[in-house]
Specification:
globular; 19% strand; homodimer; 149 residues; tRNA processing (chains A, B)
């Protein structure tokens, strides 16, 4: 039997979160945290809604996942995120010791890889999963924003 | 008249926050955020208490200050922090656009300066304010921790 659960499956779920951010007028970035093919935390960017620059999708999902697990380290977890994390979120992922990070679109301007930000040595990174779809929602958002102003 | 308000004054207030963390068995780091010589936010490390690696003193104080200001950018604010911020907190400070950061003790292992983490171009940094006191509380904490184990 072929499992329905693969990287594309979970990145689609992260994209659904990004869509929710989009609907709220937030920069559309979404995240899910998965353990044994089960989603234990979801998050989407809420910086405008909460008036809080720390309310990135990843930060919320890290807190929610730790809450679910009852421990602060995201052992055995994989995070799927539609956009390459920024310095702050990558720094948080470092502390979380998450073993796997799957990234949709790259962020050449604000992504952690542009700087020297280090993930935890345990963290394996996979990039470019549904890159086009994850990037398109951001392009759509910024084009719409520009046209409104 | 000599103003009682200078960097040492506010770093002492941040140290009081670090003491509160110490009392709770948390790595003792404290923060205050100041605007026009008035403290608008305080925070101390609560990662153990909250089971949340994102609950660093700085992160909480950034959220609290934004809440107080009613806006997400920490315009005209100065953050006093007893220990050099980590990658995550420096990344958050980048987004906050805070104009001034005053650091007590350096953190050569986990501090943001070891990595390539960038603060906002607007942010002026001052280091080494009450460095000994800010470092001593950490040393005291780790010696005690070691002796208990």
């Amino acid at each position: 039997m072929i499992s329905p659960f693969n990287d594309e499956y979970f990145m689609k779920k992260a994209l659904e979160e990004a869509e929710m951010a989009y609907e709220k007028g937030e920069i559309p970035v979404g995240v899910v945290v998965v353990i044994n093919d089960r989603i234990i935390a979801r998050g989407h960017n809420l910086t405008e809604t909460l008036n809080d620059i720390t309310a990135h999708a990843e930060m919320q999902a890290i807190t929610a996942a730790a809450n679910f697990l009852g421990g602060k380290y995201l052992l055995n977890c994989t995070m799927y995120v539609t956009l390459e994390p920024c310095q702050m979120c990558a720094g948080a992922l470092y502390w979380s010791q998450i073993p796997k990070l799957v990234i949709g679109a790259s962020d050449p301007n604000r992504g952690y890889r542009k700087f020297g930000v280090q993930l935890h040595p345990k963290t394996e990174v996979k990039s470019g999963i549904m890159e086009t779809e994850c990037g398109d929602i951001l392009k759509r958002f910024f084009i719409e924003k520009r046209n409104l102003n």
